[in-house]
Structure formats: structure tokens, C-alpha cells
Amino acid sequence: MQKTALITFGIVFSFLSISYAIRWLSPVKIIVDGNVLPFITSLSSCIILALLSIWIYIAAKKIKSTSIKNKDGA
Fold first, then answer.
1. 3-state SS of the chain?
2. Of 4, 8, 46, 60, which sits with the fewest C-beta atoms within 10 Å of its C-beta?
3. What mean pLDDT is reported for the chain?
């Protein structure tokens, strides 16, 4: 169950990272309270979400290898 949740969150963070990358590459202006949101915000969000996604995939892979070791030892 825990591995499934990690993979799901990894996919969600991957999609969010891709959406921020598309926003950064396209000339779309986002206006918040009358101010235009800078493009650097999308770039930094894209990088942070991509790193989180990679971290979650690595954690899911470690859970898989740990569960195999537990089955062999039990």
C-alpha cells in the first residue's frame, strides 16, 4: 500500500512539474491580484517538483528492495 501511494504521488508531482515547464516555455501571463506572476516562479516550481518526484520514485524503489529482503529473511 505504501509503495502504491509513493508511486501515485510521484506521478502527480511529475505532471505538475511538466505543467509548470509548459507554463515557463509558453508566453502565458498569470495575473494574481492585479500583478503578473514572474516566469522564474514557474521555473523554480518546476525544478522543485521534479526533484520531489525523483526523490519519491527512489523511495518507492527502496521499499521494493526492502520488502524482498524481509521475505527472504522471514
1. CHHHHHHHHHHHHHHHHHHHHHHHHCCCCCEECCEECCHHHHHHHHHHHHHHHHHHHHHHHHHHHHHHHHHHHC
2. 4
3. 84
Output the pLDDT for position 27.
77
- Decide: pTM greater than 0.85: no
Tell me, what amino acid is at 61?
K
Give the pLDDT confidence score for residue 33 in this predicted structure. Answer: 93
Contact assessment for residue 43 and residue 24, using Cβ atoms and an 8 Å cutoff:
yes
Residues 6+ apart with CB under 8 A from 31: 37
Contact (Cβ atoms closer than 8 angstroms) between residue 28 and residue 3: no
pLDDT score for 39 = 83
